[in-house]
């Protein structure tokens, strides 16, 4: 059970700063321990020192973000959204740069050029609804970073309530138009949160949704197919069987967002590169010395979005099949 907010502020936030100071002061010791441990591992797995460096950098950034949020609160700027979006942008830029240097991370994105009537500064901006694949660690961070950096958007997202155990997320995200939902809250509450966030979007806002509801695993894929069959959605179940890399999309959230903000363009996001890194054990065992993430975006103008519910479900599956085919092509390209 998640502790009350005041308790999280009094305990978890200061604890992060204390741990950061301890980590920075004792960093040479941990690097020596990591280097000694790496000698017992085969060369491809000698990455412990990199994780130590990244952990220290991440904690330092988290502490800096918490201190900045405290300063805003004391100075009376806790309700100023633009300052908090600037803080998030700064945090993600620094975290991304750190990952590039430590893990030699490379991100290649094939995306549509901003249209004249949408994203260019000279034209009126339009809200967007982002429907993204969910796979691997940090995909949401990279997506939010790109929205803030490339498109100068103000992201909105519905997240699991348990993420509030991270003090920096807890403080910053709760000061912005986002939503945390309990694990067993049910789909109705999630849909209502999505509808509320979408209905109040303006031209520079972007609502991010992961229609799969979680990372892909073969077990989750089969459970999703079984659930569709139990509901009598045989056509959707058959199409879901054709998806090799994705869980079938849950359409209610996407449809609720489109209904609440019909003027929004829809952006579909595919990405691959860290697909098999689901647990901390996977990250430790399989994260390559040089990590590469490849992504592709498709933008659908609001006028091209179907109107009927059934048409929108089929349209959503059409794009999910396109994403699945793109991921297959990327895997084949890397093998060749």
Can you give keywords for this protein?
54% helix; alpha/beta; seven-stranded mixed beta sheet; 7 strands
Radius of gyration: 21 Å
Largest sheet: 7 strands, mixed
User: Number of DSSP strands?
Assistant: 7
Low-confidence stretches: 115-123
Distance between the termini: 48 Å
Question: What is the number of independent domains?
Answer: 1
Given the C-alpha coordinates, what overall shape results? globular
Strand content: 5-15%
Provide the succession of SSEs. HHHHEEHEHEHEHHHEHEH
Helical fraction: 40-55%
Number of helices: 12
Average pLDDT confidence is: 86
Q: Within the largest sheet, what's the order of strands?
A: 1-7-6-2-5-3-4
Secondary-structure-derived class: alpha/beta
Describe the structure.
This protein is of the alpha/beta class and 336 residues long. It has one domain. The chain is 54% helix and 12% strand. It has 12 helices and 7 strands. The protein has helices at 5-25, 27-38, 48-74, 81-103, 139-149, 167-174, 187-199, 218-230, 234-241, 251-260, 280-286, 309-335, and strands at 106-110, 128-132, 154-160, 179-181, 205-209, 265-272, 292-300. Strands 1-7-6-2-5-3-4 form a 7-stranded mixed beta sheet, with helices on both faces. Strand 3 (154-160), helix 6 (167-174) and strand 4 form a beta-alpha-beta unit. Helix 3 (48-74) runs parallel beside helix 6 and helix 4 (81-103) crosses helix 5 (139-149). The termini are far apart. Residues 115-123 have low confidence and may be disordered.
